Sequence to fold (607 residues):
Amino acid sequence: MKNLTRRQSILAAIGLLVLLVIVWLVWTLIHVASLLSKAADDGQHIKALIAEGKFDQLQGPLEQFRADAKKASDAAHGVTWGVLTHAPFIGADAKGVRTAADVAHRIGDGPVQDLATVAKNLHALTPHNGTLDLAAIRALQPTVVSAEKSMSTACAEIDATNANGFIEPLRSKYLKLQQEIDAACTGLTSADLALKVMPQMLGESGPQNYLLVMQNNAELRASGGLPGALALVTADHGKLTFGKQVLASSLGVRATPVLPLTPLETQLFSTQPGVDMRDANLTPDFSRAADLWRARWQEVEGGNLDGVIAVDPVTLSYIIGATGPVTLPSVTLPIGGRLVTFPQRTLTQANVVDYLEHQVYIDYPDVAQQEVVFAATTDAVFARLTRGGVSAQSLLKALGRAGSEHRLYVESFDQPARGVLQGTPVAGDLQTDIKGRPRVNVLFNDFTGAKMSYYLRYSLDITTTSCNAGRQGMSAHLKIWSTAPADAAKTLPLFITGGGLYGVKPGSQSVQYMIVGPLGGTISNMLVDGAPLTKDPGNTTALPDFSQTGRLGNRPLLSNYLGLGPGQTIDITWTMTSGDGQTGSPVVGMTPSIVPGNAAANVAPAC
Fold:
């Protein structure tokens, strides 16, 4: 009996020891996970302070980030963690977390300090008295280059580990830190590229002329909207000046395309992109639209364009959010043989989109009167923007948001600058490969011939469904609906409904949608409201198929049309495969509408 009791005591002691070891290991897991989470939270806090311009409050959070990252790194290199790296089932998890902790530690000792230095000098990136200081911009470059290089290495390290299979809480904490580091990487890469091209584009070597195109989302085109107001902007050694302003319609319609069109362009749009400047951006690639705009502007207005900048009224709303409201002065002008008075109007972030995309057509049905409003708005915003006194953080945040939503495009015809911008959100080119990530674009063109896109809404959900031999499978659901009132034909003016001029019933919309699939990938299995499409006129069980297919470079393209009545909703689904080696999260882009934000949700990879 005594031997049994002794044996039980030994077993109990061993069991207690094992339990204590397990508890210790679990506590270590939770402790390191907590430290990683704290480092991610510190990063979010630092980012928020920089965005708010509170540089005097940065030192404490910077030190806290460094301390938490060091603690996580030290703990991940301790004896207990070393045991975990060799443990079955969780060894890979422990090694991955050690990598993340080390990356965070190195970031705290380098790039975070560099970013704080740059943040204090962001004022160099905003104009004062109409001029940007090129020397100050140049002075920022070494620090940004150093930080970008370090961050790129950090991102490559942390992204090399797939944490989706990690146990909790390691998985969620790892992904949280990875998200913050990847966001910083993207931001720094964009900053590095911007600083490389800014001096040249701002006229460091002589005057640079840019065509500013205001795209009207109320009549959609693939890159954003019908080109409405145009203005010539000149940059000379950092000084910005405003030149001639006209409506795109004033450039007229040619009998033949201003540049030779590609077979795909002719197939989809006939000669329209080349003969009418307002239709140049029917084409899905903004770089191509910019080339067409340049050719037509130079043909009609003369001179030489060095680039094109495109924005929309939503971008203006973001800018006004940073600058504060702008006022259009009261003016009386002779138009059409009579005097027309334009009363003073204050434009705010809240009202500018509705006014420029809708109300102006109700208040001023005459095109000449609309031109006065558009020119006055462009003048007022440009003057306020270049005068100075605007928070650099707020302005850069506004422009960054517009760029990420594909509302701000910049095309340089200088080949070195064009090469640097290629593949960035503001470039708008659709054929550049984004390493390891499939690209999907869904783009719209209005064929109503009016301003009914003001009432168009859409959302896109893409889900990755499989990963096979370096290719991802994806399913997509596009929802399109009209918010037009049921009595739109009676209550809205002809300038907004089109009045049936192009064969579309007033109040309804005719919309072309284009799906551009991944580089080297496929598009298939399209259904509209759950039903298949057919080109067979004798098939009465399927909807008629008006789609066309082609390739934009090496990307598959599918184009189709739909009619949308007031209040109507249409659901479109399809499947896609990515090209070889595209195992990362998909990059999704859509034509921006009058609604702020992105209509497409972020997509997690399947690989």
Q: What stands out?
A: The domain at 2-201 is CATH 1.20.58 (Methane Monooxygenase Hydroxylase; Chain G, domain 1). The chain has three domains: 2-201, 208-400, 433-590.
